[in-house]
Amino acid sequence: MLIADAGTRRRARVPSRLGRSIRRNLTAYGFLCAALACFAVFAWYPMVRTFILSFQQTNLIDAPTWVGLDNFRTVADDPAFGEAWLNTLEFTVLALLCGYVVPFAIAIVLNELRHARAYLRFVVYLPVMLPPIVSVLMFRWFFDPGPGLFNQILDVAGIPPLAWLDSTSTALISLVIVSTWMNLGSGTLIYLAALQNIPGELYEAAELDGAGVWRRIRHVTIPQTKLILLLMLMLQIVATMQVFIEPFMLTLGGPENATLTVAYLMYQYAFVYGGNYGAGGALGLMLMLVLVLLAFAAVQLRLNRQDRP
User: Fold this and answer.
1) How far apart are CA 163 and CA 161, in angstroms?
2) What sign does the dihedral 241-246-249-253 (CA atoms) show?
3) Which H or E element spans position 57?
4) pLDDT attached to residue 16
5) Dist CA 197 CA 31 (whole Å)
6) Cα(27)–Cα(241) distance, rounded to whole angstroms?
7) What is the value of pTM for the model shown?
Protein backbone atom coordinates (compact mmCIF):
# COMPACT_ATOMS: atom_id res chain seq x y z
CA MET A 1 0.00 0.00 0.00
CA LEU A 2 2.81 2.38 0.88
CA ILE A 3 4.54 1.54 -2.38
CA ALA A 4 1.38 2.33 -4.33
CA ASP A 5 0.94 5.64 -2.50
CA ALA A 6 4.55 6.57 -3.23
CA GLY A 7 4.06 5.78 -6.90
CA THR A 8 0.91 7.89 -7.01
CA ARG A 9 2.67 10.82 -5.37
CA ARG A 10 5.58 10.48 -7.81
CA ARG A 11 3.24 10.53 -10.81
CA ALA A 12 1.45 13.55 -9.33
CA ARG A 13 4.74 15.43 -8.96
CA VAL A 14 5.70 14.95 -12.62
CA PRO A 15 2.84 17.07 -14.06
CA SER A 16 3.38 19.69 -11.39
CA ARG A 17 7.07 19.93 -12.25
CA LEU A 18 6.19 20.11 -15.93
CA GLY A 19 3.67 22.85 -15.21
CA ARG A 20 6.19 24.83 -13.17
CA SER A 21 8.77 24.45 -15.95
CA ILE A 22 6.27 25.69 -18.55
CA ARG A 23 5.23 28.65 -16.38
CA ARG A 24 8.86 29.52 -15.66
CA ASN A 25 9.73 29.53 -19.38
CA LEU A 26 6.44 30.93 -20.63
CA THR A 27 8.04 34.18 -21.82
CA ALA A 28 10.72 32.27 -23.73
CA TYR A 29 8.08 30.08 -25.36
CA GLY A 30 6.18 33.21 -26.36
CA PHE A 31 9.23 34.68 -28.09
CA LEU A 32 9.89 31.31 -29.75
CA CYS A 33 6.33 31.06 -31.07
CA ALA A 34 6.52 34.63 -32.40
CA ALA A 35 9.78 33.84 -34.20
CA LEU A 36 8.34 30.63 -35.68
CA ALA A 37 5.25 32.53 -36.84
CA CYS A 38 7.43 35.15 -38.57
CA PHE A 39 9.46 32.45 -40.29
CA ALA A 40 6.30 30.65 -41.37
CA VAL A 41 4.68 33.76 -42.83
CA PHE A 42 7.69 35.52 -44.34
CA ALA A 43 10.04 32.62 -45.22
CA TRP A 44 8.44 29.18 -45.40
CA TYR A 45 5.13 30.18 -46.99
CA PRO A 46 6.81 32.23 -49.79
CA MET A 47 9.09 29.28 -50.58
CA VAL A 48 6.16 26.88 -50.83
CA ARG A 49 4.16 29.42 -52.83
CA THR A 50 7.09 29.97 -55.21
CA PHE A 51 7.40 26.23 -55.76
CA ILE A 52 3.72 26.00 -56.70
CA LEU A 53 3.83 29.13 -58.90
CA SER A 54 6.77 27.78 -60.90
CA PHE A 55 4.46 25.13 -62.41
CA GLN A 56 1.50 27.45 -63.02
CA GLN A 57 0.44 30.25 -65.33
CA THR A 58 -1.41 32.85 -63.28
CA ASN A 59 -1.97 36.57 -62.80
CA LEU A 60 -2.87 36.02 -59.11
CA ILE A 61 -6.47 37.05 -59.88
CA ASP A 62 -7.96 34.42 -62.16
CA ALA A 63 -7.78 30.70 -61.53
CA PRO A 64 -4.24 29.40 -62.18
CA THR A 65 -3.47 27.04 -65.04
CA TRP A 66 -1.09 24.14 -64.58
CA VAL A 67 1.62 24.34 -67.28
CA GLY A 68 4.21 21.90 -65.99
CA LEU A 69 7.76 22.75 -67.08
CA ASP A 70 6.80 25.46 -69.59
CA ASN A 71 7.92 28.24 -67.23
CA PHE A 72 11.36 26.67 -66.89
CA ARG A 73 11.66 26.44 -70.69
CA THR A 74 10.62 30.09 -71.04
CA VAL A 75 13.26 31.19 -68.56
CA ALA A 76 16.00 29.01 -70.03
CA ASP A 77 15.32 30.30 -73.57
CA ASP A 78 15.63 33.93 -72.48
CA PRO A 79 18.97 35.45 -73.68
CA ALA A 80 19.19 37.33 -70.38
CA PHE A 81 19.13 34.06 -68.42
CA GLY A 82 22.80 33.26 -68.98
CA GLU A 83 23.86 36.88 -68.45
CA ALA A 84 22.02 37.03 -65.13
CA TRP A 85 23.72 33.90 -63.82
CA LEU A 86 27.17 35.03 -64.99
CA ASN A 87 26.70 38.45 -63.39
CA THR A 88 25.47 36.86 -60.17
CA LEU A 89 28.46 34.52 -60.00
CA GLU A 90 30.88 37.35 -60.80
CA PHE A 91 29.27 39.55 -58.16
CA THR A 92 29.49 36.70 -55.62
CA VAL A 93 33.20 36.16 -56.28
CA LEU A 94 34.05 39.87 -56.11
CA ALA A 95 31.88 40.40 -53.03
CA LEU A 96 33.62 37.52 -51.27
CA LEU A 97 37.06 38.89 -52.10
CA CYS A 98 36.09 42.18 -50.47
CA GLY A 99 33.30 41.40 -48.05
CA TYR A 100 34.91 38.26 -46.64
CA VAL A 101 38.50 39.40 -46.22
CA VAL A 102 38.02 43.07 -45.27
CA PRO A 103 35.79 42.49 -42.18
CA PHE A 104 38.19 39.82 -40.89
CA ALA A 105 41.17 42.15 -41.32
CA ILE A 106 39.33 45.01 -39.56
CA ALA A 107 38.36 42.66 -36.73
CA ILE A 108 42.01 41.68 -36.25
CA VAL A 109 43.01 45.36 -36.09
CA LEU A 110 40.23 46.21 -33.62
CA ASN A 111 41.17 43.23 -31.47
CA GLU A 112 44.75 44.52 -31.20
CA LEU A 113 43.77 48.06 -30.22
CA ARG A 114 43.85 49.15 -26.61
CA HIS A 115 42.21 52.59 -26.93
CA ALA A 116 38.96 53.85 -28.51
CA ARG A 117 37.89 50.26 -29.17
CA ALA A 118 34.22 50.87 -28.27
CA TYR A 119 34.03 54.00 -30.44
CA LEU A 120 35.58 52.23 -33.44
CA ARG A 121 33.15 49.32 -33.04
CA PHE A 122 30.29 51.79 -33.24
CA VAL A 123 31.77 53.42 -36.35
CA VAL A 124 32.24 50.04 -38.06
CA TYR A 125 28.71 48.89 -37.16
CA LEU A 126 27.06 52.17 -38.20
CA PRO A 127 26.33 51.08 -41.84
CA VAL A 128 24.29 48.13 -40.55
CA MET A 129 22.05 50.44 -38.50
CA LEU A 130 21.18 52.53 -41.55
CA PRO A 131 18.25 51.34 -43.70
CA PRO A 132 19.57 49.76 -46.91
CA ILE A 133 17.68 52.28 -49.06
CA VAL A 134 19.45 55.14 -47.27
CA SER A 135 22.86 53.59 -47.86
CA VAL A 136 22.11 52.97 -51.54
CA LEU A 137 20.88 56.52 -52.12
CA MET A 138 23.99 57.87 -50.39
CA PHE A 139 26.22 55.85 -52.69
CA ARG A 140 24.22 57.02 -55.70
CA TRP A 141 25.53 60.51 -54.92
CA PHE A 142 29.04 59.14 -54.28
CA PHE A 143 29.01 57.56 -57.76
CA ASP A 144 27.60 60.62 -59.52
CA PRO A 145 29.80 61.29 -62.57
CA GLY A 146 29.69 65.04 -61.95
CA PRO A 147 29.85 66.23 -58.32
CA GLY A 148 30.11 62.75 -56.83
CA LEU A 149 32.46 62.22 -53.89
CA PHE A 150 34.49 59.43 -55.50
CA ASN A 151 35.24 61.41 -58.65
CA GLN A 152 36.19 64.42 -56.54
CA ILE A 153 38.69 62.23 -54.70
CA LEU A 154 40.04 60.96 -58.03
CA ASP A 155 40.34 64.54 -59.27
CA VAL A 156 42.41 65.52 -56.22
CA ALA A 157 44.68 62.54 -56.90
CA GLY A 158 45.03 63.58 -60.56
CA ILE A 159 43.11 60.55 -61.89
CA PRO A 160 40.48 61.01 -64.63
CA PRO A 161 36.87 60.65 -63.43
CA LEU A 162 35.04 57.36 -63.90
CA ALA A 163 31.51 56.67 -65.06
CA TRP A 164 30.95 54.39 -62.10
CA LEU A 165 27.39 53.22 -62.77
CA ASP A 166 27.25 54.03 -66.48
CA SER A 167 30.13 51.88 -67.69
CA THR A 168 29.99 48.12 -68.21
CA SER A 169 33.52 47.80 -66.80
CA THR A 170 32.85 49.54 -63.46
CA ALA A 171 29.11 49.12 -62.78
CA LEU A 172 29.33 45.68 -61.17
CA ILE A 173 32.38 46.66 -59.13
CA SER A 174 30.44 49.70 -57.89
CA LEU A 175 27.68 47.42 -56.64
CA VAL A 176 30.27 45.29 -54.85
CA ILE A 177 31.58 48.40 -53.07
CA VAL A 178 28.07 49.28 -51.89
CA SER A 179 27.34 45.73 -50.72
CA THR A 180 30.65 45.47 -48.86
CA TRP A 181 30.08 48.73 -47.00
CA MET A 182 26.48 47.87 -46.10
CA ASN A 183 27.41 44.48 -44.59
CA LEU A 184 30.80 45.40 -43.14
CA GLY A 185 29.68 45.94 -39.54
CA SER A 186 27.90 42.67 -38.84
CA GLY A 187 30.71 40.53 -40.24
CA THR A 188 33.37 42.50 -38.36
CA LEU A 189 31.62 42.13 -34.99
CA ILE A 190 31.09 38.39 -35.50
CA TYR A 191 34.77 37.92 -36.32
CA LEU A 192 35.74 40.14 -33.38
CA ALA A 193 33.69 38.01 -30.98
CA ALA A 194 35.43 34.89 -32.31
CA LEU A 195 38.87 36.48 -31.93
CA GLN A 196 38.22 37.46 -28.32
CA ASN A 197 37.51 33.81 -27.46
CA ILE A 198 41.03 32.76 -28.49
CA PRO A 199 43.11 32.05 -25.35
CA GLY A 200 45.82 34.65 -24.89
CA GLU A 201 48.29 31.91 -23.91
CA LEU A 202 48.44 30.78 -27.54
CA TYR A 203 49.64 34.20 -28.69
CA GLU A 204 52.12 34.39 -25.82
CA ALA A 205 53.55 30.99 -26.76
CA ALA A 206 53.80 32.06 -30.39
CA GLU A 207 55.63 35.25 -29.42
CA LEU A 208 58.07 33.26 -27.28
CA ASP A 209 58.78 31.11 -30.32
CA GLY A 210 59.63 34.26 -32.27
CA ALA A 211 56.50 34.34 -34.42
CA GLY A 212 55.74 37.67 -36.04
CA VAL A 213 52.35 39.18 -36.75
CA TRP A 214 51.71 37.26 -39.96
CA ARG A 215 52.80 33.94 -38.49
CA ARG A 216 50.57 34.46 -35.46
CA ILE A 217 47.63 35.16 -37.77
CA ARG A 218 48.42 32.12 -39.91
CA HIS A 219 49.16 29.59 -37.16
CA VAL A 220 46.96 30.85 -34.30
CA THR A 221 44.20 33.20 -35.43
CA ILE A 222 42.99 31.40 -38.55
CA PRO A 223 43.05 27.84 -37.09
CA GLN A 224 41.22 29.00 -33.95
CA THR A 225 38.50 30.75 -35.96
CA LYS A 226 38.24 28.17 -38.76
CA LEU A 227 34.68 27.13 -37.90
CA ILE A 228 33.29 30.68 -37.86
CA LEU A 229 35.21 31.46 -41.06
CA LEU A 230 33.58 28.52 -42.86
CA LEU A 231 30.15 29.46 -41.51
CA MET A 232 30.52 33.09 -42.60
CA LEU A 233 31.77 31.98 -46.01
CA MET A 234 28.62 29.93 -46.54
CA LEU A 235 26.32 32.69 -45.29
CA GLN A 236 27.97 35.30 -47.49
CA ILE A 237 27.73 33.11 -50.58
CA VAL A 238 24.01 32.63 -49.95
CA ALA A 239 23.47 36.35 -49.32
CA THR A 240 25.47 37.65 -52.27
CA MET A 241 23.82 35.30 -54.75
CA GLN A 242 20.47 36.88 -53.82
CA VAL A 243 21.61 40.45 -54.47
CA PHE A 244 18.69 42.64 -55.48
CA ILE A 245 18.59 46.04 -53.74
CA GLU A 246 21.81 47.35 -55.28
CA PRO A 247 21.00 46.71 -58.97
CA PHE A 248 17.35 47.67 -58.45
CA MET A 249 18.13 51.05 -56.91
CA LEU A 250 21.34 51.99 -58.71
CA THR A 251 21.47 50.53 -62.23
CA LEU A 252 18.17 48.76 -63.06
CA GLY A 253 20.29 45.92 -64.40
CA GLY A 254 22.22 48.13 -66.80
CA PRO A 255 24.21 49.26 -68.57
CA GLU A 256 23.68 46.63 -71.27
CA ASN A 257 22.63 44.05 -68.65
CA ALA A 258 26.06 44.32 -66.99
CA THR A 259 24.47 44.30 -63.52
CA LEU A 260 21.45 42.10 -64.25
CA THR A 261 21.30 39.48 -61.49
CA VAL A 262 19.11 36.43 -61.04
CA ALA A 263 17.05 38.06 -58.27
CA TYR A 264 16.52 41.20 -60.33
CA LEU A 265 15.53 39.12 -63.38
CA MET A 266 12.94 37.40 -61.17
CA TYR A 267 11.55 40.83 -60.32
CA GLN A 268 11.39 41.75 -63.99
CA TYR A 269 9.46 38.60 -64.89
CA ALA A 270 6.94 39.14 -62.10
CA PHE A 271 6.45 42.93 -62.17
CA VAL A 272 7.85 44.26 -65.46
CA TYR A 273 7.21 41.64 -68.16
CA GLY A 274 3.41 41.69 -67.91
CA GLY A 275 3.20 39.87 -64.59
CA ASN A 276 4.70 36.51 -65.58
CA TYR A 277 4.70 35.20 -62.02
CA GLY A 278 5.18 31.60 -63.14
CA ALA A 279 8.45 32.36 -64.91
CA GLY A 280 9.60 34.42 -61.93
CA GLY A 281 8.75 31.54 -59.63
CA ALA A 282 10.62 29.09 -61.86
CA LEU A 283 13.73 31.25 -61.77
CA GLY A 284 13.40 31.62 -58.02
CA LEU A 285 13.14 27.85 -57.64
CA MET A 286 16.31 27.43 -59.69
CA LEU A 287 18.15 29.87 -57.46
CA MET A 288 16.85 28.16 -54.32
CA LEU A 289 18.01 24.76 -55.59
CA VAL A 290 21.48 26.13 -56.30
CA LEU A 291 21.71 27.59 -52.77
CA VAL A 292 20.48 24.35 -51.21
CA LEU A 293 23.06 22.35 -53.17
CA LEU A 294 25.79 24.74 -52.03
CA ALA A 295 24.67 24.32 -48.42
CA PHE A 296 24.71 20.51 -48.71
CA ALA A 297 28.13 20.65 -50.36
CA ALA A 298 29.49 22.77 -47.51
CA VAL A 299 28.06 20.40 -44.88
CA GLN A 300 29.45 17.37 -46.72
CA LEU A 301 32.87 19.00 -46.99
CA ARG A 302 32.81 19.75 -43.28
CA LEU A 303 31.83 16.18 -42.38
CA ASN A 304 34.54 14.73 -44.63
CA ARG A 305 37.15 16.87 -42.92
CA GLN A 306 35.97 15.74 -39.50
CA ASP A 307 36.15 12.06 -40.55
CA ARG A 308 39.77 12.33 -41.65
CA PRO A 309 42.29 11.03 -39.13
Assistant:
1) 7
2) negative
3) strand 56-57
4) 65
5) 28
6) 37
7) 0.82
